[in-house]
Amino acid sequence: MVLSSLEPKKVFEFFELLSSVPHGSGNTKAVSDICVDFAKQRGLEYYQDEFNNVIIYKPATPGYENADAVILQGHLDMVCAKEPDDPTDMAKVPITLAVDGDWVHAVGTSLGGDDGIAVAMALAILDSSDLKHPRLECVFTTDEETGMDGAVGLDCTHLTGRRMLNLDSEEEGVLTCGCSGGARVDCDIKTSREEVDGYVRYFVKLGGLTGGHSGCDIDKGRGNANKLLARFLYTTNEEIGLRLVHMAGGRFDNVITPEATAEIAVPAGSAAAFSALAKAYDGIYKNEYSAADKGVFLTAEKIDGDCAPLTAEDTARVLLCLLLLPQGVIEMSMDIKGLVQTSLNLGILRLEDGDFHCSFSVRSSILTQKEMLITRLKATLEAVGGTVSVRSAYPGWQFAKISPIRDTVSEVFAEVYGKPAEITATHGGLECGLFIEKLPGLDAVSFGPDLRDIHSVRERMSVASVQRMYKALVKILEKCR
Is CB count within 10 Å lower at the N or C end of the chain? Predict the structure, then answer.
């Protein structure tokens, strides 16, 4: 056991148990069954549905029998990020945990602290025999990272509580009390290919970017590899001409893509000019992103190949589309200083066989601006003969002026930290909006321990922060009479 020496012992014991099975989005049956086995072994009532969502119930302790139930909520899935050249199949191999001082991390992959630590803390409380609390309804949802599909499908008639503690925030001492709504948007263009002569093939790679979470990190000035690669290729096509063969970038639409590649064909007589242009753009990107992405690079390597490239017309259509598609922050909030109000992220890019495909994560705390961005994507695709489809839409969470559960959590935070909690909203998506929509009158607040660089291989979790946060969670439940 790698984490056996860490406190709170039970919390880290359960986190390591959850980490022992692969549990990326869409691959949650094993981790869901771990939670069910946990409940069975302790004689706790539970509910598991076809989406692999799990609810575990624990009766109120003496003196809390008349208190309203409290919902503890987190999600079971994680974003499976790894180094670009790592052959590990994270759908089959569990993560390898490690401890470096105060930080728990994974070796070569993302950690899954988002949101495994929420589930681990809830399991530790369910496993306890000496804590005071009202009836608990611990809700562990699935596929949150790919559109909150578990929460969308959950039958909430299995819940009686109207007070919810969502444990899916990543900054200690901060209470999140509102979030953006969002949607996934898929963009497609049908393309055709033809055999060509007199062309030289190149493999182009744009990498070395920091990447990050498209909700938490979208305002940090980090480059998106899909967009930067497209910018270079568009310029190349304008100056010397090229044909697209393949393109690939990103695996998740809610992750700022750190690396993208393309196979292209360049007229043989323009090979020297192309190499010079690639070298120039490597320097341009190093200059433009010297602060946010110091490791950025653009390389072009001559290769052999016999796959027919796109026609010149379709190459131009795809590159024009990529150039015009928006990316990043669109509007900042005028109500909450520093809060992103509306953004989008081009997280997935593919050109293979006869189709071009890309996917966006669109976010906004204002429904009409989210709809505006989706309309903008549709207009851009239609202008180049493409199509757009929308999936996994989820509602925002509007800040509540009156919130007794927020007041309770704020009181405990003041006791634990010796200062008032910071109350804010997030540009990221949280499941609270969906639960509030399904459970009229639900009063919710979100918090969690310090997690850094989630959704990336640099993801890490503070041990000391988990200790303080778990202590606060125990006190909060004790005050929920």
Answer: N
